[in-house]
Amino acid sequence: MLRSLLFLPLLALSACVIPNSRSNTVVVTDTKSVVENCKKLGELEGASPLGKVLLRDQARDAALARLKAGGAELGATHVESSVADIKWKGPSTAGTAYKCGT
Prior knowledge:
alpha+beta
């Protein structure tokens, strides 16, 4: 029992996504018209391994962070996802990465 309690903080840290300057510039939107003239780069998943344990607001924040980080890795400027809606209640955390502009 004690051993499993020691691994709990490690598990929590492994679910974190640390934002960086590239991921902070990625815009997550739920409005398709924002990305209609952009180049599609790929599909993303924002689910966290702790998604079922986190409160809804924390799960949404974690999904947004994962979508931004994944978008940044693909070179995206935008990610279209239902998670961007402030009224999001899950369960979908999927998104599509786009490169807009030049």
